[in-house]
Design a protein that fits this description.
Length: 299
């Protein structure tokens, strides 16, 4: 809920790229110790955010720019201290590169393995799994989040006094949702902290709570909509089912691809500590050179 800690970095290599790869094109948005941050850099970072982080940000590009400025300063200082040559840092970068290469390869493999899912398969899946495809109960709310109970009470009094909830939220709230008048969209019970949900359950659409305390601070909540749980009709979920079945089929193809690599590779397996496995007690004479465990390791 709170935006104070919602937007995190997007990974070690992406963070380093803020300095190494700044200047991705577009208008210059800021210059940090001679290093330009452009609108292209902002677009690139926005694209790498998870959907939930992007929603929490609420298209607040200035806030994103502030984060890039801070991150750039920290990376510049790390480089000034020579931390790029730190053994642990170099090992982390090496591991990140391995993971990126593997991830990219699997993406390429999936695009080269198109799959088809028939309408009959989709209907059969719907009939067998309609309960798990049901839409859970959901709420939609706007809120004003503040650090102290006193501040929240003052915000509540302003709304009760006739000021628009959205206006007060935009002016006072500490949450990124302030950019949208406090609106956080629809959410289920599993997606929001229990204290917030409990307050919403006591309200009807259009009603406003008192001051609600949660681990994030003090809230004033306006419930704007409520949807009961319902069974989703086939027409609403058939595309979702098609994507799900296609993804499962692609995953099986990827697993088969990986297995084919293993079957063609020369792999020597050793016990922990680097020692080669001992010959079987039943063996007499030198190990069989055709054994997979004794084959020459591939590079």
């Amino acid at each position: 809920m709170s935006g104070r800690y919602l937007i995190r970095g997007v990974g070690l290599l992406a963070a380093l790229a803020v300095v190494a790869g700044c200047g991705q094109g577009g208008k210059i948005s800021a210059v940090v110790n001679g290093q330009a941050i452009t609108s292209g850099d902002l677009d690139q970072r926005m694209a790498k955010l998870s959907p939930s982080s992007r929603a929490a940000l609420g298209n607040d590009r200035r806030r994103l720019l502030d984060e890039l400025i801070t991150e750039t300063l920290l990376i510049q200082e790390a480089r000034r201290r020579g931390l790029e040559q730190d053994i642990e840092v170099r090992q982390l970068i090496k591991e990140a590169r391995r993971q990126i290469l593997v991830g990219r390869l699997l993406e390429v493999v999936r695009t080269q393995m198109p799959v088809e899912v028939s309408d009959q398969e989709i209907k059969q899946f719907y009939e067998q799994h309609h309960e798990e495809l049901a839409e859970p109960e959901s709420f939609r709310a706007s809120h004003i989040l503040l650090e102290t109970e006193e501040a929240a009470k003052k915000a509540l009094e302003r709304v009760k006094g006739g000021e628009a909830f959205a206006k007060v939220a935009q002016e006072l709230s500490d949450d990124p949702s302030k950019a949208k008048g406090g609106d956080i969209g629809f959410f289920t019970k599993e997606e929001i902290i229990p204290e917030f949900i409990a307050a919403c359950e006591r309200l009807k659409p259009g009603e406003m709570s008192g001051v609600v305390k949660t681990p994030l601070g003090y809230h004033v909540i306006l419930l704007t909509d409520h949807r009961d749980a319902r069974k989703l009709p086939f027409d609403e979920v058939q595309d979702q089912i098609r994507r799900r079945l296609a993804a499962q089929r692609q995953q099986r193809q990827v697993e088969a691809f990986v297995q084919s690599l293993r079957s063609r590779a020369q792999v020597a397996v050793h016990e922990p500590g680097g020692r080669a496995p001992s010959p079987s007690p039943a063996s007499s004479g030198p190990p069989d050179p055709s054994s997979p465990q004794q084959s020459k390791p591939g590079n």
